[in-house]
Amino acid sequence: MIDIKGVSKVFKGKKQITAVEDVNLQINDGEIYGIVGYSGAGKSTLVRMFNGLETPTTGTVTINDTVMSDLHGKELREKRQKMGMIFQYFNLLWSRTVLQNVTFPLELTHVPKEERQAKAEKLIETVGLKGRENAYPSELSGGQQQRVAIARALANDPELLLSDEATSGLDPKTTDEVLELLLKINRELNITIVVITHEMHVIRKICDRMAVMDAGRVVEEGSVFDIFRHPQKEITRQFVSEEETPQLTDTNVVINELLKQVPTGKIVKLTFHGDQAKLPIISEMLRQFPEIDLNIVDGSIHQTQEGSIGTLYLQLLGNAQEIIDAQDYLHKMRVETEVIRGE
Amino acid sequence: MVSSTTGFSSYFHFSQVDWASMWSATGETIWMTVFSLVLVAIIGILLGLLLFETTDSHSLWARLLHWLAAVFVNVFRSIPFIILIVLLLPITKNLVGTIIGPKAALPSLIISAAPFYARMVELAFHEIDHGVIEAAESMGATNTQIIFKVLLPESSPALVSGITVTGISLIGYTAMAGVIGAGGLGNLAYLDGFQASNNTITLVATIVILIIVFIFQTIGDLTVRRIDKRITR
């Protein structure tokens, strides 16, 4: 378990910068924990205190009962060997082949040659790069290089994997592939993963719990599902809305177009959570209120670790009273309804 | 035998060339260059490593060490070579027992070229992506492991091309040292060529030096191409 207590980090220089301010977090064994924030929010500095690349100015980072700032020299290096880290720019050694990059951390811990060879080959297979053992990083795509970096990070059987913007340099398809791989590693090897990102998509796809950082502070924390459903802070809402309606501008265009063509009618946005997304609520609504005509403007469903979240934009036409009753019905079914445009 | 000491034709009296002394001078030049280059490489890498490791350090000792190394490097890189030889004559006599011959050229060759190479080594280390060093740290690497498994291999193409450039300027330095008695092709061109008004010897010595430079450059370039895995070919 990772326990962060009252952690602050102040960089002293010409100008004093408080990168992290009074952060308290608990990360459980075996979970994937996401820390989201815009660049400069302090999330990278925070995660670098996990493996002692930075030391907190005040507060403590405790990892499995070890206070990181108490460790020095050999002890710190041995603890670091039990943590893997992956980076935005992969940070592979270009002078080494894929296989040699993966054996690198094993060389550091003086694992016999045969053993590290066998282990590296197994890991390369796990990350899906079998057959590329003797390629050099410059011959690989970004996604493949990150896979090598993941294999390297796993070489010493870490109890914790830190991911610092590991998918930020990758295209959406490759990002998803790398995220799938992280999910697989978490499930199969039961490794705790801490993910630093500025993309809500990454959090939604693989994280169990999350924290939102802004200006060095954790402003919101909880399960990914709760935060997506009920974001409390403005900045969280920004992150959530970025993700929830990736085609928001398209939707507005569609709504405006529809409103122009059919000046009558109400536009509502429905949000479904978890099991509701699986129920035939809309068809049931139409059956109960047959005087209503509806037009689907836009819709999407996102999968999160805890279930699916769906959004649906509807244009409702017909009997005004029935439309109001229908909204009550949706409310009763615990579907969130937001009126985008009244009649 | 009619021979003129001026005019274009004076370059082509090959019969006057004493080939035996030409080849022995070539041998001396190559020996001086290679021997000093090996020591320059060792001292330069150590000095460059010292400069790199003590950059931006918080420890007072490291800062002092960095300052001392930087002063040493800057001073000896700035002294013109011909003056350095003369300046170092007493020390040379103590170190190698003579101030004449190829051996006597070594101290000044090394002291002038090692700081030059040390700067190139420092620069090569600085060009390594800091993230790679940080990744090694995050895996629990010791400083020694970082030096031998990250810094040296990752900067190897720059280190080799640096040694090529240094080697070529060392060839130039040996020729200069030759003028004041260190032997080699510079000595031959000066004594048997210039002072004996034998232009052919000067020309032949020049061509031999050029060939040595080309061979050096080619070996350096081929080595860099073989070890540099950053670009796929």
UniProtKB/TrEMBL annotation, chain A:
It comes from the Bacteria. Keywords: Amino-acid transport, ATP-binding, Cell membrane, Membrane, Nucleotide-binding, Translocase, Transport. It comes from Loigolactobacillus backii. One of its GO terms (biological process) is amino acid transport. InterPro entries: AAA+_ATPase, ABC_transporter-like_ATP-bd, ABC_transporter-like_CS, ACT-like_dom_sf, MetN_ABC, MetN_ABC_transporter-like, NIL_domain, P-loop_NTPase. Gene3D superfamilies: 3.30.70.260, P-loop containing nucleotide triphosphate hydrolases. The keyword Membrane applies. Part of the ABC transporter FtsEX involved in cellular division. Has ATPase activity. Essential for cell division and viability. One of its GO terms (cellular component) is plasma membrane. Belongs to the ABC transporter superfamily. The lineage of its organism: Bacteria, Bacillati, Bacillota, Bacilli, Lactobacillales. One of its GO terms (molecular function) is ATP binding. This is Methionine ABC transporter ATP-binding protein. It catalyses: ATP + H2O = ADP + phosphate + H(+). Pfam families: ABC_tran, NIL.
